[in-house]
Write a structure and sequence with these properties.
- By secondary structure, this protein is α/β, with parallel strands linked by helices.
- The chain is built from 11 helices and 13 strands.
- The strands form 4 sheets. A 7-stranded parallel sheet has the order 3-2-1-4-5-7-11, with helices on both faces.
Length: 306
């Protein structure tokens, strides 16, 4: 296949590009900086990658890059793990909603058109709760992150007007050497780790390799369509997650991490970790997808191995 990817230089996207090339696919990397794209994906190592510089919030010649592609993977979005100034909140929204709208505009012009489209969203769609359990049929909440997800998914739904099969993944917290979890390792490595927040909040996670495998399955499995939770089948309470993390790192895990420490590390995005939600991948499991990592200890051992 020939697959166009936004967000390809990010944590999930860069691993996806590696895997797709390993499997023999051609990849069109849409990036705001061609220099950065070439640095991350040098031609001698990534011969099947074509770098296209684009302006995600504006129409332009870049939109022609979708013509002839078989699939699109839309992962682009401004980082959540920062301070949410009014300006950054607008960037969080625009990068996802307007960015997706401009991609759909490119899809409308493409000839021939892609036949499958995979779009990211997030489990923030459901809001937070210590007691509720959410699956793909659960309603949306009404907080900022939920509104972002709703706008993002609504923009992606317009893809269906132009023919492609649409798959939307609501991502949990991705475990790997990158993203929010890499930042959470800092207190533990300084022998100052322990329960984060109340410890009772749910932590719905997925290993990096499993989300990449899910995206590849969505690109190649014609039976997949609609909304899927991209989380492991066994979410854990934060206190249990921190206990396991301490054991894996061979560090103590008894000193509670004050909220302000996590907020210093993750900005306002810390609320995702401090509040949490229990999300189950009901539709995902029904596809027959085989997770490599269903136990959080196995996932963390893989991530922090020497």
């Amino acid at each position: 296949m020939k697959i166009a990817i936004t967000g390809a230089t990010g944590f999930v996207g860069s691993r996806l590009v590696e895997r797709l090339q390993e499997e023999g696919h051609d990849i069109v990397v849409l990036t705001r900086s061609a220099d950065l794209g070439r640095k991350i994906f040098p031609a001698e190592t990534f011969p099947k990658v074509t770098i296209v510089e684009y302006t995600p919030l504006a129409s332009g010649p870049w939109q022609g890059a979708l013509s002839g592609c078989d699939g699109v993977v839309n992962l682009a979005g401004a980082p959540i793990s920062e301070r949410w100034s009014d300006e950054h909140k607008q960037a969080i929204v625009d990068s996802r909603v307007v960015g997706t709208e401009k991609l759909v505009e490119a899809l409308a012009q493409a000839d021939p058109k892609p036949t499958v489209w995979v779009n990211a969203s997030a489990i923030g769609y459901y809001g937070t709760s210590e007691t509720a359990t959410f699956d793909e049929t659960s309603p949306a909440a009404d907080d900022f992150l939920s509104q972002v997800c709703q706008g993002w998914e609504s923009a992606a739904q317009r893809v269906k007007d132009h023919g492609p099969r649409l798959v939307i993944f609501r991502l949990g917290i991705v475990l790997g050497m990158g993203g929010a979890v890499a930042k959470m390792l800092t207190p533990f490595r300084m022998f100052a780790g322990g329960p984060i927040g109340s410890g009772r909040q749910w932590f719905s996670w997925i290993h990096l390799e499993d989300i990449v495998n899910l995206i590849i399955k969505a690109l190649t499995d014609p039976t997949m369509e609609g909304i899927y939770n991209a989380t492991a089948p066994n979410p854990v309470r934060m206190a249990d997650f921190c206990k396991v993390l301490g054991k894996v790192l061979k560090r103590p895990s008894w000193l509670p991490v004050p909220d302000f420490v996590l907020e210093t590390i993750l900005g306002d995005g810390a609320q995702v970790v401090l509040e949490g939600q229990q999300v189950l991948p009901t539709r995902t499991a029904a596809t027959g997808f085989t997770y490599q990592y269903t136990d959080v200890k196995d996932a963390l051992v893989d991530i922090v191995k020497p």
